[in-house]
């Protein structure tokens, strides 16, 4: 595989760096987003995974098209496999996680908190005797704060969002309705692709006119937990983890290496990253029904050529 695409420097103003994306101002109330191959876990950038950025960008584009009837989104154009041109939005200060299953290994996951003895989590009460990786009676919304670089997201209950003044009540009700409808659409289309969408993260913002918009990415292996449906029951009965097509395997490998999100992450074997790249591509092909066609490398040179920017 090619070396991962980790960064790009374009001659555009107002550069902003996220864990995975780099964005620039691109005209009047527009932003240009470049999705890199960087992979984050435990709220930190851990490594680069070849082709991951292209998968995220193109798969998000596919999902944005199939959910625009649920809620408006910020997409204007996708001129390159790793580039998105979008309406500039003011992001809401919370991440909106929707969970359909009790699972996870991080400190903010439902299962980790439940296993540690908590029965009221994110403002919801959970009965005794639940099994890891099983479905909830109905999907729930579990918001978190958005941490600054190097910090960690903090869990919130849905009522905390309005009580703490993070989002106005009418807008938050709109967000909750959209998030649950998006998740239902995601589970439906994942099911037709032989996958289970166990949980996901959404980010919302408001446009210059105040309209609620879905931003960032949607239903990707970075923001979502996908399990292979055909092997799910068998692995559950055997006490094994579901066969996943996301970055959960990376999280588990880090935990097994003794990493809990603090300090310098341990180095994982190259085979872990190659396998992660294949899982991301597999998820893309299963969901879209398309064959993944890698864009030309080096990615930064290709992007500059497409956009007409000199190095």
Any descriptors?
alpha+beta; 6-stranded antiparallel β-sheet; 5-stranded antiparallel β-sheet; 8 helices; 311 residues; 15 strands
Q: Your description of this structure?
A:
With about 300 residues, the protein is α+β, with helices and mostly antiparallel strands. It has helices at about 50-65, 110-115, 160-165, 170-190, 230-235, 250-255, 270-290, 300-305; strands spanning about 15, 20-25, 30-35, 40, 45-50, 75-80, 85, 90, 95-100, 120, 125, 135-145, 195-205, 210-215, 225-230. Helix 1 runs parallel beside helix 7. The longest helix has 24 residues, at about 170-190. The model has no long low-confidence stretch (mean pLDDT about 95).
Brief synopsis:
The chain has eight helices and 15 strands. The chain is an alpha+beta fold and 311 residues long. The radius of gyration is 19 Å and the shape is globular.
Structural class: alpha+beta
Q: How many H/I helical runs?
A: 8
Which residues form runs of ≥5 with pLDDT under 50?
none
- What's the helical proportion of residues? 25-40%
Distance N to C terminus: 24 Å
**How confident overall, as mean pLDDT?**
94
**Tally of DSSP β-strands:** 15
Which sheet architecture does the biggest sheet show?
6 strands, antiparallel
> Radius of gyration over alpha carbons?
19 Å
Q: What is the string of SSEs from the N terminus onward? A: EEEEEHEEEEHEEEHHEEEHHHH
């Amino acid at each position: 595989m090619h070396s991962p695409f980790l960064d790009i420097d374009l001659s555009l103003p107002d550069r902003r760096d996220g864990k995975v994306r780099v964005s620039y101002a691109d005209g009047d109330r527009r932003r240009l987003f470049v999705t890199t191959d960087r992979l984050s876990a435990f709220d930190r950038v851990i490594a680069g995974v070849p082709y991951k950025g292209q998968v995220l960008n193109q798969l998000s584009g596919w999902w944005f098209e199939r959910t625009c009837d649920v809620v408006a989104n910020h997409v204007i154009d996708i001129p390159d496999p790793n580039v998105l041109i979008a309406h500039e939005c003011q992001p809401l200060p919370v991440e909106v996680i929707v969970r359909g299953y009790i699972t996870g290994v991080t400190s903010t996951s439902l299962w980790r908190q439940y296993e540690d003895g908590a029965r009221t989590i994110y403002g919801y009460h959970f009965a005794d005797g639940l099994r890891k990786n099983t479905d909830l009676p109905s999907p729930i919304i579990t918001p978190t704060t958005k941490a600054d670089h190097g910090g960690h997201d903090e869990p919130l209950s849905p009522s905390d969002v309005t009580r703490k003044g993070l989002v106005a009540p009418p807008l938050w009700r709109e967000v909750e309705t959209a998030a649950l409808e998006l998740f239902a659409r995601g589970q439906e289309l994942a099911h037709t692709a032989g996958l289970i969408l166990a949980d996901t993260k959404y980010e919302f913002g408001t446009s210059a006119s105040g309209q609620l918009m879905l931003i960032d990415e949607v239903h990707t292996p970075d923001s979502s937990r996908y399990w292979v449906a055909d092997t799910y029951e068998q692995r559950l009965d055997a006490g094994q983890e579901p066969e996943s097509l996301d970055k959960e395997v990376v999280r588990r490998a880090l935990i097994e290496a003794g990493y809990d999100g603090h300090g310098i992450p341990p180095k994982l074997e190259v085979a872990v990253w190659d396998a992660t790249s294949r899982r991301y591509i597999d998820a893309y092909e299963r969901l879209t029904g398309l064959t993944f066609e890698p864009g030309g490398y080096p990615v930064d040179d290709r992007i500059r050529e497409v956009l007409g920017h000199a190095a």
